[in-house]
Amino acid sequence: MRFEDLVGAIRAEDGDDDDGLAAATQLRVRRSLETRARSRHQLVGVMTAAGILLGGTVSWALATGNIRALWSPAPMIEPASPQPAPAPPEPAPRRRLATIPTPAPAPETLPAPIEPPPAPPPLAPPPRPRAVRPAAPPVEALYRRAHELHFHGGDPSITLAAWDSYLAVEPTGRFSVDARYNRALVLVRLARYAEAREALLPFARGEVSPTGYHQPEAAQLVSRLARFAP
Amino acid sequence: MRKVTAISMPLVMPVEAETVDSDLVTRLRRGERAAVEEAYVAHHAAIRGFARRLVGDATAAEDIVHEAFVALPRAIRRFRGDSSLRAFLIGVAANHSRRHVRSAMRRRRATERLAAHEDIQQRTVDATDQLITKQMATRLWAALDELPIDQRIVFVLCEAEQRTSVEVAEIVGAPEGTVRTRLFHAKRKLREKLEDQS
């Protein structure tokens, strides 16, 4: 048997003899491509949803000040040790927003001796315990509590103590400039004009960073306070 | 399967390089599934023929054809237009043929005895003619199973499909000299093996 005959035998295999097989393979190709396209669309959908979720989470965190909880939650978490009962509640704020929960750990970190205000008007019953945000780190909870007291009718003396508590823990933190400014405003409300003026002076001079933070307002307040606390 | 007499027919594939369907290639690059369907209709017979000559097994050949066309939308990014789309597709099929060659080889060995018994039942002249062709082809495929896959592909393209070394070099993506060397070694080994068998 010659070598060329063997080659010729293979050459005769042309694959043209079965139209049914060719059609079946064409159908297989079509289905495989459809499946691949579907998988690609599903992947795109999942990635889009994940992006939206991530974007929403970051936006929420930025808006609510929880960005620290997103990026570095681990170092902020306190061990779940038995805590003493919260300090006796001070005169409570007049009203509160039900939608913003107040973390529980905040009262524990308040400085123990709180000077009673000159004439604290008992305006409202003590604050009711709020839902605990277990993931919120203590420093953030301190800020949130002070912020809530400050902007939602909290008693000035309690608010001042809350700002002091936050600033004691985080004197140069992300929110410390804001806290210092608000603390100065609380001092004005408490008629402690000399302290308020001294606290506002750096803002009025533009010495805080970011530069110009509430500078016009601070300058106006300083000039007015000068009449009461030269 | 064609009869042995078909061997004498001119089987040189037409040179398609000059008629590259640039529109089809453009649509393939855009990922149009309809373009893949068109490419299948235009070229499936050539791809199937190559696959069958290469592996000697209809089932494995269909798998190669399937994989080549499924891979086409991605593979077409590598197509530079130097050769025809058909030659490019044969190259894609060759790249996907390796594991199918092995599976076809195993299947061929497993069914060798059974096929020998079935062949005895052939009675007509045509059937006997086909049987002889099949036996010869099977003998060569068995010898091809002993070759490295690169030499096997070059042998099938050059000898069974009677393509020029230039064309084969474009298909397999290797220099023409390499193609000739592979062909030389493939033929030498095959002759030795076939002589040993007889």
Please provide a written account of the structure.
The complex is a heterodimer of chains A (230) and B (198). Chain A has 230 residues and is mainly α. Chain A folds into 2 domains: 3-64; 90-191, no CATH class. Chain A is 57% helix and 0% strand. Chain A has 9 helices and no strands. Chain A has helices spanning 3-11, 19-64, 67-71, 73-76, 138-151, 156-169, 176-189, 193-204, 215-228. Chain A is rod-shaped and about 120 Å long. In chain A, 26% of the residues are buried. With 198 residues, chain B is mostly helical. Chain B has a domain at 19-110: Rna Polymerase Sigma Factor, Chain: A (Orthogonal Bundle). In chain B, 72% of the residues lie in helices and 0% in strands. Chain B is built from 10 helices and no strands. Chain B has helices at 22-29, 33-55, 58-75, 85-95, 98-110, 112-119, 125-144, 149-160, 165-172, 176-197. The longest helix of chain B is centred in the N-terminal third of the chain and has 23 residues, at 33-55. Chain B is globular and about 55 Å long. Chain B starts with 21 loop residues before the first helix and ends with a helix. In chain B, 39% of the residues are buried. At the A-B interface, helix 1 and helix 2 of A face helix 2, helix 3, helix 7, helix 8 and helix 10 of B.
